[in-house]
Amino acid sequence: MPERAAPTTLESLSAMVPGSTPDLLRWLDQQLQAGQKEATLLQSLRDTGWSDAVARQAFAQVVRWRSAPAPQAAPPIPEPDLRRSPTDIDVGDRAVHVLMALEHPRIVLFGNLLSADECDAIVAAARPQMARSRTVETRTGSEEINADRTSQGMFFVRGQTPEVARLEARLAKLLQWPLENGEGLQVLHYGPGAEYKPHHDYFDPAEPGTATIVRRGGQRVGTIVIYLNDPEEGGGTSFPEARLRIQPRKGNAVFFSYAQPQAHTLTLHGGDPVLRGEKWIATKWLREREFH
User: Fold this and answer.
1) Which DSSP symbol is given to 232?
2) How far is CA 280 from the centre of its chain?
3) Backbone angles phi, psi at 163, to 5 degrees
4) Cα torsion 57, 63, 65, 67: sign
5) Nearest partner of 78 among 291, 289, 292, judged by Cα
6) What ranges in the chain are assigned the alpha helix state H?
7) pLDDT in tens, 113-147
8) Which of 5, 64, 111, 190 could pair with 279 in a Cys bridge, judged by C-beta atoms 3.0 to 4.6 Å apart?
9) Element (H or E) spanning 159, and its range?
């Protein structure tokens, strides 16, 4: 038997049957669960003063409600444990600061994710491999150079350097998400004037190439952007729909998640132009399943 919805569902359903009450619909539901037949129930209602029209309509609504499929549980997504409003989260080898949290969209700003030395080491390891950044081309499933993204970038494989391995282990604990469900860490460099215009990180289900992309680990369900230096001016991470801008700070990170690949998650975001100096960031995208 399908799992029953909460009683408030029957209460709201009674509003669709003029002249009925929530108690009437609840009684009908209980009698149907006990195996009573339609004719017996309708006669009982008439005998107690309910009109035939109300009795029949109430019976039909309860039957329809009972036969509806049970609601699907929301799929799990990455999520830091913020149930007790902690100021710090222990990730094993350091305490990561919780600086700001929004419920919708789900955005959390962390401090002290990386030390200054770790940031410098990741930049040093990435620098020799930098090339013009590409984006996923969802029409075909391949990659392309995109005029909206004017940065240089590279990818580490998981655990490629000691600093990358430590960071990935911290993120797995911080976001309560399996390490193997993360894509390789991407490092990006933005010079003066470079930017990444607002976009979504999930793969559009309507695009023909998405089916090919998600074979490697399912949809993206979360993103964490880690700041590896302090730009002199500009270079923030903006969320236009949430009217929020995160200023880069070395060692800090901003996390956001999206349970569905849909715009109502309000996770449209972009990298503002760097006005002075340069910006180095690392990005980790989190998938539904093991990424391979």
Assistant:
1) S
2) 24
3) -65, -40
4) negative
5) 289
6) 7-14, 22-33, 38-47, 52-67, 116-126, 162-174, 210-213
7) 999 999 999 999 999 999 977 666 556 555 555 66
8) 190
9) none
> Can you tell me the mean pLDDT for 68-85?
83
Could you tell me which residues come within 8 angstroms of residue 154 by beta carbon, excluding any fewer than 6 positions away? 126, 129, 130, 131, 186, 187
> Residue 130: exposed, middle, or buried by beta-carbon count in 10 A (0-12, 13-18, 19+)?
middle
Global pTM? Answer: 0.73
CB atoms inside a 10 Å sphere around CB 220: 22
Query: What amino acid occupies position 162?
Result: P
What are the CA-CA distances from residue 243 to residues 19, 182, 246, 270 (Å)?
A: 46, 28, 10, 12
Contacts with 27 (C-beta within 8 Å, 6 or more apart), sequence order: none
**Residue listed under structure tokens 């049970």:** 70
Closest CA to 91 of 69, 115, 70: 115
- Count CB atoms within 10 A of the CB of residue 15: 9
Mean pLDDT of 171-185: 98
